[in-house]
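Field guide to reading this record: the first block holds the primary sequence, the second block holds the structure written as discrete tokens, and the final block holds curator observations. Each block starts with its own label. This record concerns Type I-E CRISPR-associated protein Cse1/CasA, catalogued under organism Streptomyces blastmyceticus.

BLOCK 1 — SEQUENCE
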Amino acid sequence: MYGPPPPWLPGGLVGGYAQALSTAHLIDHIDVPYEATESVVVRNLVAMAMRVTGLDRARGQEWQRLRARVLAEGRFDAARVEAYFAAHRHRMWLFDDACPYRQVPALRDECKDWAAPGKLVYGLPSGNNHVWFDKRDQDTPLPAHVAVWSLEALLGVGAGGGCGTRKPAGHPARSKTAAGPYRNTVSYFVKGRTLFETLVLNCPSALPTGPGEDLAPWETDAIPDPLAPALAAPSGRVSLLTGRSRHAVLLDPAPDGRAVLRLKLTWAFNAAGDKMPPALDPFLMHAHSMGKDGREQIRPVPADPDRALWRNVDSLIAHARPSAPRTADPDKPGKSSKKSAPVVAPQVFTDLSAGLGSGPAAAVLRAARVRALSCAADKADDVLWWSADSPYPLFRPVGDRTLVPPTVRAAHTDAENAFVLLDRATKQMTTAMCAGNRDRAVGMHWPADARRLFWDRAEVVFWQAVSAARDGQPYEPGHFLPVAVAAYDESTATATQSPRGIQAVARARIILTRRPKPSSRKAAA
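BLOCK 2 — STRUCTURE
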């Protein structure tokens, strides 16, 4: 499942990350076993890329010019890459008594109990549960390269709830942690033709900063204070991408350093209870709302495994703002007439709006796509891991701005409009089948069946429209209405077994098939 061990283990992670940066212009994409691992590793690589290019310090137009210049160079400077990892090599060993990579050596004294190594791995059976992904049990020693991937995934999307008991000196013990910062979210990345382009395009511009130095966990020898408020509040772009884990881990290696025999897993900090200090991750969509106290609340948009990547194109690339609230998702029963919190695009997509409209940078952007990574989960159990790539580029540099081709927006709007009609028709038909009892109609399956059929088939039509747009063909509205009619007919077929059903289906179907009435207004004389 995991492939052979990388050549840079059991030595340390420095070789893997250094090789990824120094050869990024030759690599199409990094291949890791978990979507959550990839999401964390890309953030780590972006933080490292900012360090070796200086994009972590530049601001405003200076940052835009530097980003364009780095893209024009086509690769990371080998000397700067070597110097960066030479400075931090001692902090990037997976197994080390003093400073193990992304681990907390203080847990040897603060956390009493050791856990089985399998507790770190997603997909292993526990207790008497069935085997789904991996036949090894929890106590089997964990190969070092599997531990690396699993450690990164845990730090990103680890589950909240009970954990190992941790008792810092002079403070009460605690055995509960919150979920990881990317759990139940969707991370959106700009995907270039090479790993180099991907990393540079995903470097965020200036972000609000907090107190303290802006350092990654592997850039400091200081042992984090679990009770310090600054541990959770990012000081800048690098700490925002790499320092927000809610879990603390310590691995106990085998004598030869090729496996993990046991581990300690507990909470990372308790400065503010279970409440994560606010921070706008540049790869997440955020919803703005007003709390009961009248203050604005900004939260990541929860992952929805039923909502495909292409349906978020409008919010991602059109750079939605709080002043233009998006209507509530009509997929959710009972909410079609309400409005959701205004949605703001991930900052990395907003950063594409200027500074890449000419020269080599424009060619890079013109070929860029979108990649989404998600762990849709509840509080304890992983529900679904998924990834998705846009099959075609979606950006169009114009002058010094980046625009979305009108065809893409037109097709997206056409699909949403067709679904509104389909949703209205199926709900009217369902209410008629239930003799007007709306409460009973809510639990019927016909609207959900039509919704699933429509969005599955509409995606093909959408990407066909995007492909045609690349060839210069205009988009004519109406491509999605036949899809809606077919979804309606197929989903309501089971209701046509009685005269009442036939009548209800036929009457509601008119919503999808009738032509709009011509305007009754007469031209002025």
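BLOCK 3 — OBSERVATIONS
Residues 1-11, 319-328, 333-338, 519-525 have pLDDT under 50 and may be disordered.
The chain is about 35% helix and 15% strand.
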